[in-house]
């Protein structure tokens, strides 16, 4: 997030898109609702489903799946045409405005309506509302990123924020809501194939030399590694013969699960490290039990870049080790002496080698976390990014055209499927589906279907139906609902016994390599 969670309450207008915030981020959603109810903030929700947050919205735009670039360009078309853009911010802090202006010129409200289904008046109203705010915050989640155009979607949100001068100010920003508790921290630490900690590229010879010196090694690879969505297909072809999976359950979470299962079965050796036995662990040659968050000391970096202490509350089972200890012991057996004594010692190394963490220490975050970048011991941390300039200096506008989803409906597969989460379960259910109370509230998978589509396909509420795509099929219970509109169904992905990802396909965003989980074509039939 460029801004903090609490900063949302300083916004005059809040634009939430691709985020079922009340179910996926219930604590954070309370800040949005509080801003609307008690601080007179105006809320714009852009979502194909009638999510709970629409009840608090002043304006709800309901686009067709996979049309985010179109409606965003439509908003920017209106803002520029009506002279509502922040000319001073654009002049002083950005480049390539004319390229953006030229691109969005064709995205008239009428043209956008043809693509997205959003009425022209709604596009105009949303553009005026966002552009007219003293400070406008944008919040988004995986409904924006999990597309073949996910990178384009995020760049378009950044375009909109820069166009209206809503970056580097309180109550503004472009704020991705991370899906799990330390996703931000994992990325910060180099849990991406192309960077070291602090997002310093592996292709930078100076950075590689610094890391080699710190670790006492030579010839660190200059070539970026592979994303997981590249690794799994390479397991299928035999190019990758072993995988080590930590804290992930791809046998529920990967797109096109049938193909993913075949790919993993082709491996010579599979190691899974997790806190519970998972569907992926059942396929492993070796399972390494690890300690959970409550059983260890360390730090988490949350969605707002706040680095916080995590303290051990209970003892782990006797066979479960801290993740860092497991990694260290494997390194020793492979010939590299990784002799850490504690998580604090590791954090001290992180601070020495990561400029954005250099001023953070256990002592400083004993009672309250700090926001990175925090480059020195006397630095207060940085709650709001880009107050003076962007990382590259001036922010660059990107001229982005609309590209439709990778898979379209046809006579054989006439409906679109989108996937997501429910309030009571978390990701692949590794933890929550072992919790009796949560299972009572959300015991099984379901498919949300509109009343119109239920009538069209002869589906009765609460009946079992088969949902099939070009990749697989599952049996789920029908839930006739006003949440979805005609032509689209929704299935949560938590349930291994009716895994939605047996249906989704693995078409990837060419930049981020994220699969298009949010759009695929399906058909319905009565279950046998």
From TrEMBL:
Question: Which Gene Ontology BP annotations are present?
Answer: formate metabolic process; nitrate assimilation; respiratory electron transport chain
Question: What GO cellular component is one of the record's annotations?
Answer: membrane
Q: Do you know which CDD domains this protein is assigned to? A: MopB_CT_Formate-Dh_H
Tell me the Pfam families matching this sequence: Molybdopterin, Molydop_binding
- Name what cofactor the protein needs: Mo-bis(molybdopterin guanine dinucleotide); [4Fe-4S] cluster
Q: What is its EC number?
A: 1.9.6.1
List GO molecular-function terms, semicolon-separated: 4 iron, 4 sulfur cluster binding; formate dehydrogenase (NAD+) activity; metal ion binding; molybdopterin cofactor binding; NADH dehydrogenase activity; nitrate reductase (cytochrome) activity
- Which top-rank group of organisms is this from? Bacteria
What does the UniProt record say this protein does?
Catalytic subunit of the periplasmic nitrate reductase complex NapAB. Receives electrons from NapB and catalyzes the reduction of nitrate to nitrite.
Q: Which UniProt keywords apply?
A: 4Fe-4S, Electron transport, Iron, Iron-sulfur, Metal-binding, Molybdenum, Nitrate assimilation, Oxidoreductase, Periplasm, Signal, Transport
Task: List, alphabetically, the InterPro entries matched.
Answer: Asp_de-COase-like_dom_sf, CT_Formate-Dh_H, Formate_DH_asu, MoPterin_dinucl-bd_dom, Mopterin_OxRdtase, Prok_molybdopt-oxidoreductase
Q: What is the lineage of its organism?
A: Bacteria, Pseudomonadati, Thermodesulfobacteriota, Desulfobacteria, Desulfobacterales
Keyword Electron transport listed: yes
State the protein's name. Answer: nitrate reductase (cytochrome)
> Carries keyword Cytoplasm?
no
Residues annotated as domain Molybdopterin dinucleotide-binding: 415-521
User: So what does this thing catalyse?
Assistant: 2 Fe(II)-[cytochrome] + nitrate + 2 H(+) = 2 Fe(III)-[cytochrome] + nitrite + H2O
> Domain Molybdopterin oxidoreductase spans what residues?
1-333
């Amino acid at each position: 997030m460029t801004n903090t969670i609490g900063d949302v309450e300083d916004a005059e207008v809040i634009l939430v898109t691709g985020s079922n915030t009340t179910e996926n981020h219930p604590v954070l959603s309370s800040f949005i609702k509080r801003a609307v109810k008690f601080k007179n903030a105006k809320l714009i929700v852009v979502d194909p489903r009638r999510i709970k947050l629409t009840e608090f919205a002043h304006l709800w735009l309901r686009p067709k799946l996979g049309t985010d670039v179109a409606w965003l360009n439509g908003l920017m078309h209106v803002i520029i045409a009506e002279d509502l853009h922040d000319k001073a911010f654009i002049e002083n802090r950005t480049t390539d405005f004319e390229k953006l202006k030229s691109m969005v010129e064709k995205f008239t409200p009428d043209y956008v309506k043809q693509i997205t289904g959003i009425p022209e008046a709604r596009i105009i109203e949303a553009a005026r509302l966002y552009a007219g705010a003293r400070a406008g915050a944008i919040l988004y989640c995986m409904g924006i990123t999990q597309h073949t155009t996910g990178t384009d979607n995020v760049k378009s949100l950044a375009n909109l924020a820069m166009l209206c001068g809503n970056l580097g100010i309180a109550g503004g920003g472009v704020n991705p809501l991370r899906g799990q508790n330390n996703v931000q921290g994992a990325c910060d630490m180099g849990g991406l194939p192309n960077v070291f900690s602090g997002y310093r590229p592996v292709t930078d010879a100076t950075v590689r030399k610094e890391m080699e010196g710190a670790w006492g090694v030579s010839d660190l690879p200059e070539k970026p590694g592979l994303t997981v969505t590249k690794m799994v297909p390479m397991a299928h072809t035999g190019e990758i013969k072993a995988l080590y999976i930590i804290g992930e359950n791809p046998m529920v979470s990967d797109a096109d699960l049938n193909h993913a299962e075949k790919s993993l079965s082709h491996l010579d050796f599979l190691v899974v490290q997790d806190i519970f036995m998972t569907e992926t662990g059942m396929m492993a040659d070796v399972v390494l039990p690890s300690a959970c968050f409550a059983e260890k000391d360390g730090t988490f970096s949350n969605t707002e870049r706040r680095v916080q202490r995590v303290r051990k509350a209970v003892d782990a089972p006797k066979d479960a080790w801290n993740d860092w200890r497991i990694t260290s012991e494997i390194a020793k057996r492979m010939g590299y002496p990784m002799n850490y004594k504690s998580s604090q010692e590791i954090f001290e190394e992180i601070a020495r080698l990561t400029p954005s963490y250099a001023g953070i220490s256990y002592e400083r975050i004993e009672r309250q976390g700090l926001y990175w970048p925090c480059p020195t011991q006397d630095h207060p941390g940085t709650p709001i990014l880009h107050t003076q300039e962007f990382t590259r200096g001036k922010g660059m506008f990107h001229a982005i055209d609309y590209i439709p989803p990778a898979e379209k409906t046809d006579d054989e597969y006439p409906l679109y499927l989108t996937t997501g989460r429910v309030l009571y379960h978390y990701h692949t259910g590794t933890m929550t589906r072992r919790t009796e109370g949560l299972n009572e509230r959300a015991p099984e998978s379901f498919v949300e279907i509109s009343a119109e589509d239920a009538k069209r396909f002869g589906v009765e509420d609460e009946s079992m139906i088969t949902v099939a795509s070009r990749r697989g099929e599952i049996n789920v219970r029908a839930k006739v609902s006003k949440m979805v509109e005609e032509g689209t169904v929704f299935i949560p992905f938590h349930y291994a016994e009716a895994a939605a990802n047996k249906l989704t396909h693995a078409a990837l965003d060419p930049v981020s390599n994220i699969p298009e989980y949010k759009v695929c074509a399906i058909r319905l039939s009565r279950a046998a």
